Structure formats: C-alpha cells, structure tokens
Amino acid sequence: MKKLNFSTIMLWAGMFFLYAPMFILVIYSFNESKLVTVWAGFSTKWYGELFRDQQILDAVWTSLQVAFYASTMAVILGTMAAFVMTRFARGWGKLTLSNMITAPLVMPEVITGLSLLLLFVHMADLFGWPAERGMLTVWIAHSTFCAAYVAVVVSSRLREIDRSVEEAAQDLGATPFKTFFAITVPMISPALVAGWLLSFSLSLDDLVIASFASGPGATTLPMVVFSSVRMGVSPKINALATLIILIVSLIAFISWYFARRADIKQRSSSA
Questions:
Q1: Using an 8 Å Cβ cutoff, are 263 and 254 in contact?
Q2: How many whole angstroms separate alpha carbon 192 and alpha carbon 75?
Q3: Which pLDDT score is estimated for 271?
Q4: Which helix H or strand E contains 271, and what residues bound it?
Q5: The pLDDT of residue 265
Q6: Closest CA relative to residue 172, chosen from 157, 188, 160, 183
Q7: What is the pLDDT of residue 235?
Q8: Long-range CB pairs of 241-248, under 8 A, 24+ apart, other chains included
Q9: Burial class (CB in 10 A: 0-12, 13-18, 19+), 266
C-alpha cells in the first residue's frame, strides 16, 4: 500500500475544500423543502420552478448576449493593444499604453464600475448619449475590463512566435495587413480562443461592474442571483447553480477528450 505523504494529503484536502460545497449544493437542489438547509425528501420540483421563472430566464439570456458581444469586442481591442505592446519600439508611449492596459487587472472592480458610471452620466449630459443605461452600457463596461486580460494573454503569445515567418511573407510581397491576417492570426489563434473564453467567463460572472453600468432594462444573471440571495436563498438558485456546474463540467470533459485525442494522434504520427 502506498504511503500517504504531505503532498497527497494537501492535494485531497484542497480538492475537498473546493468541491465539497458544490457537492452539497447539488444534493440540496433536489430538496423538497423551501428551506435550503433542511432536508425534507427528494424532489425535482425546483427545476420546474426554475424554468417557469421568467425573470431568471431573461437574465440568463441577457448575460449570454452581453458575454458573447463583450468577449468578441475584448478580443479585438486586446489583440490590437497586444500588438502595439510587443511590436512597437520602446518609448514612453509604449510604456504608458502597457501600464494603462494592465491597470484594470489590479484595480478594484468598485473603482472601475464607479468610474464607468460617472463617464456614462457625463456623456449623457454633454452629448445626450447614452440616453439610459442598459445592455449597451454593460457591453461597453465589460469589453473595457476584459480587453486587459486578452491583451496579457495575446501579448505573451506574440512574444513567442517566430517573426522570421512574417518577415518572409513581407519579402514575398505580402502587405503588413495581409501578413497579420494570413500569418500572425493563425499562429496566435490558441491565445485568441483562450482570451475569448476567459473574457466570456469574466463577463458572465461579473456582478460589481454590471451593477454600476446597467439600468432597469438590463439585469444580468449575477444581479438576479445576488438580489434573490439577499431576500433569502431559494432552492431555485441551487437548481440553477447545479445546471451551470453540469454545463461547465460537460464542456471541460469534451475539451479534455478532444485534446487527448489530438495528443494521441500526434504521438502516433511522430512515432
């Protein structure tokens, strides 16, 4: 029998600390009682109640829309910023841009949300736009802070690629614009996908910034969950969290499966 060492004990302790609350949450999503801490028998009625709650369904759709558009815009802005950070000559302009891009990574979300709220209010007073805060302002706010994460991910990939391939393409007559889309983008595509997925997760999970930037017509899912929890935890929230855990687990398993197949195929072809 293999002896337990300190590393193994800490590994299992960490796994228990991370996943035991989720496991309990999944169990209590099938609770008959309205009280989330009192077990009254097995039931799936709260899943039915969840799908009949139009407020939650609308909030899910709003969050998915905002996350999709925000992550897409963040990839565009973050890639342009990363290209400037890695390809332009050193100077005060490049240093200033780098510091400004990475500032949202360490800045508290309360400050970011409050500054964006003041910006939208002053723009509405000066230009009449935006007339009211809603999905558009949440999209702008999420795109702003997600672009910083994309810039960091993409810039690290841009520093690793072989620039001689780009130089060879330009020597053969390709314009810088065509070289970027035909050579550079395919080489950094894994970083672009990673940045998009990271931005999607951050936008879908954000509560603080969305609370400042949203209005009555744009309530995201974290805002609905937070307001519901403040009034008392409903078993419907447990059911919603269980479905989210299931979807994320399925996506992670599918990604692992295809990555494993690609790795096995690559090893067999190189053998």
A1: no
A2: 7
A3: 62
A4: none
A5: 84
A6: 183
A7: 84
A8: 241/25, 241/29, 242/25, 242/26, 242/29, 243/47, 243/50, 245/22, 245/25, 245/26
A9: exposed
Q: Which residues contact 72 (CB under 8 A, 6 or more apart)?
A: 196
Amino acid (1-letter code) at residue 265: K
Alpha carbons within 13 angstroms on the beta-carbon side of residue 266 total 6
Query: Among 121, 136, 120, which Cα is nearest to 217's?
Result: 136
Question: For residue 176, what are the CA distances in angstroms to 78, 167, 171, 182?
Answer: 19, 9, 11, 10
Cα–Cα distance for residue pair 84/79, rounded to 1 Å:
9
Whether the model clears a pTM of 0.85, i.e. scores above it, the answer is yes
Tell me what pLDDT residue 203 has.
94
Chain Cα centroid distance, residue 180: 26
Query: What's the 3-state SS for 169-207?
Result: HHHCCCCHHHHHHHHHHHHCHHHHHHHHHHHHHHHHHCC
Q: What is the pLDDT of residue 2?
A: 58
Helix axes 45-52, 235-270, angle to 10 degrees: 90
The string of pLDDT tens digits covering residues 80-130 is 999 888 887 676 777 777 788 888 888 889 999 999 999 999 999 998 888
Q: Which two tokens stand for residue 260?
A: 């494993």
Residue 72 has what pLDDT? 96
Nearest to 56 by CA among 250, 270, 262, 229: 229
Distance in angstroms (rounded) separating the CA atoms of residues 2 and 10? 16
Q: Which residues of the chain have pLDDT under 70?
A: 1-3, 89, 91, 271
- Helices assigned H by DSSP within 6-53: 6-28, 45-52
